[in-house]
Write a structure and sequence with these properties.
With about 550 residues, this protein is mainly beta. The protein is built from 6 helices and 39 strands. The strands form 8 sheets. The chain has a 7-stranded mixed β-sheet with strand order 13-12-11-15-20-17-18, with no helix packed on it. It has a 6-stranded mixed β-sheet with strand order 1-14-22-21-16-19, with no helix packed on it. A 5-stranded mixed β-sheet has the order 2-5-10-9-7. The chain starts with a helix and ends with a strand. It binds CU-O-CU linkage and copper (II) ion (2 copies). One copper (II) ion binds next to strand 7.
C-alpha cells in the first residue's frame, strides 16, 4: 500500500519541484526505474579540520523512514581536497563497536598509513592518518579495510572522497565549482520499507553483493538541474561488486578525460563506458542540447554477462537508473577540450613478470572460495617481496569463464599493457590502480613499486571476494641508496636500514630542516644542510613526524 502511495508522490513531486512534467527520454526501451520521490543532488561536504567521527546511525535516506548507515561526521558524503606536495594529517575516531582500518585508495602512502587490516584501531579510539600527498591531480577515495568486514562496512557507508589538485590540471581550466559534480555511485538492495541491510547468502559471497537501486553521494533517485553548457562529472564506483555500463538515456556522447590516476593523455569521445568497482572516471558532458524541463538519465545500460552456476538476485548487466539531469533555460559555460591533456611518463622496458591465477576453488566443505594462485588470504602470511622503485609486469590470469575480477594494487598507479580478450579500453590508457579482468581473460600491467618500505596488499575489489580471501600480502624492500632518483624534486627517502633519511632540495641550504611530532611540538631543528646529506633520526622514537623543508611539508615515519 505504502509503496503505491510513494509511486504516486513521485510524479507530483517532480511537477511541484520543477513545475514541469518529466519528459520521457528517447531510447524508451530502457525502463524508467524511478518510482520514488526524486531528491536533489548533494555536493559532498569538504573536510575542514578536526576529528572525523565514524559512527553507525539511523539517517534519512528514503522518504518517510530512516536507514541504518555508517556515517562520517553525520554527513551523507565527506570529501578531502588535497594539494599535491602538501602533507596532511587526519584524526579518525572510531565510534563503532569493532576495530576499523581506513585505506586511502589510489594514494601512494607509507605502509603504516595504508589501512592494512593488521593496523586496525579499536572501538572508542582515534587514529591519526598522516602522509605526504605524492599523487597527481585526480579523484581518489578512502574506505574501510577492516579484516573480513570491508564489504559490510563499505556497503553501509564507511567511505568518502579524496580530490587531489595540482598545477598541471589547473592549467586546463576545466569546468569547476557548480560545474564540477563528484558522483559516488553505490548500488544497494532496498526493500519496500527502505531498509538496506547487508545479509549476503552463499550465492552473494560467490557473485558479490549486488543491489536494485543506486545511491549517488548517499542519495537515491538523485536529480540535478543543469544549465546549458559543459559539466565535469567525476565518478567513483563505490559498489561492492556491480560493474556499470554507463551511458545517458538519450545516448548523449561524452568525453572521457581521466581515469583512476588522473588525466588521460588524450580525450576519448564515447557514448558508453564500463566502470568496475573502485574504478574512477572523469568525463565532460555538454547539456546544451537539453530543452528546458527535459530529463536525461545517467543509467547503467543492460548488458549480457555470463552467469556462474547460481544466478544472483540482481545480476551483473541489469538496467539501473543512476541519476537524472533536468535542463534549464540558464546559460552555463562553454568548454572546448584540448586534443592533448597531458604527457604521461613512458614505461621502460620491463622484464620481470609475476603471474597471478584467479580462480574460484570448489573445495569440499568450504563452499566456493575465490583464490589467487590457489591460496586464500592469510593476514600473517607474506606472499612475496618486491624491490622498492623497480618496475614489474603483473599478469592477471582469470581462470573462470563466467566471472570478472576488478584487480587492485595498493598505492600504485600502473599502466595496462594488454588484454587477451581484445583491444585496450579508452580508460586503460591512463594511470590505473584497478583493472577489470574479464572472463577467461589475461590482463598484463606494468607497475612501479613504492618507495615506501613495508607491507602492502593487492586484491580483487569485488568486496565479497576480498573478504573471502582473494587478496595477498606483499612487502616492499627498499635498498639504501634510492636517493639518486628525481634529484631535483623535494623528496624524502626513508631509509629502513639506517637511522637517517635524505632530503633532496635546494631549500635545505637556506631554511634547513625542522621536525615536529604529531602534536605539532618541535623535536629537532637543523640549519643549513647540504642537499643529499643524511639527517640522523636515531634519537627519535617510533612515530609519525612532520618534516618541514623550506615551505614544503613532508611526512616521516620512524619504525623500530
Ligand atoms: Cu580500495 Cu584494498 O582497496
Ligand atoms: Cu587501495
Ligand atoms: Cu574477484
Amino acid at each position: 500500500m505504502k509503496h503505491t502511495r510513494r509511486q504516486f508522490l513521485v510524479h507530483s513531486a517532480v511537477v511541484t519541484a520543477w513545475g514541469l512534467a518529466p519528459s520521457l527520454p528517447l531510447g524508451a526501451n530502457i525502463p524508467l526505474l524511478l518510482d520514488e520521490s526524486p531528491t536533489a543532488y548533494r555536493f559532498p561536504t569538504l573536510y575542514n579540520g578536526g576529528d572525523v567521527e565514524v559512527a553507525q546511525k539511523n539517517v534519512p535516506v528514503w522518504p518517510e523512514t530512516t536507514t541504518d548507515r555508517i556515517v562520517l561526521n553525520s554527513l551523507p558524503l565527506l570529501a578531502f581536497e588535497f594539494e599535491k606536495g602538501s602533507s596532511v594529517s587526519i584524526p579518525i575516531r572510531n565510534q563503532l563497536t569493532s576495530p576499523i582500518s581506513i585505506h586511502w585508495h589510489g594514494l601512494d602512502v607509507p605502509s603504516a598509513m595504508d589501512g592494512h587490516p593488521k593496523d586496525a584501531f579499536s572501538a572508542g579510539s582515534t587514529k591519526e592518518y598522516a602522509f605526504a600527498v605524492r599523487n597527481r591531480a585526480g579523484l581518489y577515495f578512502f574506505h574501510s579495510h577492516s579484516h573480513m568486514a570491508t564489504a559490510r562496512e563499505v556497503y553501509m557507508g564507511l567511505m568518502g572522497l579524496v580530490i587531489v589538485r595540482d598545477q598541471e590540471e589547473r592549467q586546463l581550466s576545466l569546468p569547476s565549482g557548480e560545474y564540477e559534480l563528484p558522483l559516488v555511485i553505490q548500488d544497494v538492495r532496498v526493500d519496500a520499507a527502505g531498509k538496506v541491510a547487508y545479509s549476503p547468502t552463499m550465492n552473494d559471497m560467490m557473485n558479490g553483493w549486488m543491489g536494485n537501486r543506486v545511491l549517488v553521494n548517499g542519495t537515491p533517485n538523485t536529480i540535478h538541474s543543469v544549465k546549458r553548457g559543459a559539466y565535469r562529472l567525476r565518478i567513483v564506483n563505490a559498489s561492492n561488486a556491480r560493474v556499470y555500463k554507463l551511458q545517458f538515456s538519450n545516448a548523449l556522447p561524452f568525453t572521457i578525460i581521466g581515469t583512476d590516476g588522473g588525466l588521460l593523455e588524450e580525450p576519448a569521445v564515447v557514448t558508453s563506458v564500463q566502470l568496475a568497482p573502485a574504478e574512477r572516471l572523469d568525463i565532460l558532458v555538454d547539456f546544451s542540447t537539453l530543452a528546458q524541463g527535459e530529463i536525461v538519465r545517467l543509467i547503467s545500460a543492460p548488458y549480457t554477462s555470463p552467469v556462474e552456476m547460481m544466478s544472483p538476485l540482481y545480476p551483473q548487466g541489469i538496467a539501473l537508473d543512476i541519476m537524472s539531469f533536468i535542463g534549464s533555460v540558464e546559460q552555463g559555460i562553454q568548454y572546448s577540450v584540448p586534443a592533448k591533456l597531458c604527457t604521461l611518463p613512458t614505461v621502460p622496458e620491463v622484464t620481470t613478470t609475476r603471474t597471478f591465477a584467479l580462480a574460484m576453488s570448489r573445495g569440499m566443505g568450504m563452499g566456493v572460495r575465490p583464490t589467487i594462485n590457489g591460496k586464500t588470504y592469510d593476514i600473517d602470511r607474506v606472499d612475496f617481496q618486491v624491490t622498492g622503485g623497480t618496475y614489474e609486469i603483473w599478469q592477471f590470469q582469470n581462470q573462470e569463464n563466467a566471472m570478472s575480477h576488478p584487480m587492485h594494487i595498493h598505492g600504485r598507479q600502473f599502466r595496462v599493457l594488454s588484454r587477451s580478450n581484445g583491444a585496450l579500453l579508452p580508460t586503460d590508457k591512463g594511470l590505473k590502480d584497478t583493472v577489470l579482468v574479464g572472463p577467461s581473460e589475461t590482463v598484463r600491467v606494468a607497475v612501479q613499486h613504492s618507495e615506501y618500505p613495508g607491507l602492502f596488499l593487492f586484491h580483487c575489489h569485488n568486496l565479497e571476494h576480498e573478504d573471502e580471501g582473494m587478496m595477498q600480502n606483499y612487502t616492499v624492500f627498499v635498498p639504501t641508496g634510492i636517493e639518486e632518483r628525481e634529484p631535483t624534486d623535494t623528496m624524502l627517502y626513508p631509509n629502513p636500514t639506517a637511522d637517517s633519511f635524505v632530503v633532496q632540495s635546494q631549500a635545505l641550504e637556506h631554511g634547513g630542516v625542522t621536525i615536529y611530532d604529531s602534536m605539532g611540538r618541535l623535536v629537532k631543528q637543523l640549519h643549513s644542510m647540504v642537499p643529499g646529506s643524511p639527517i640522523s633520526v636515531a634519537d627519535l622514537p617510533s612515530a609519525t613526524y612532520r618534516v618541514q623543508v623550506g615551505n614544503m611539508d613532508l611526512t616521516l615515519i620512524v619504525r623500530r
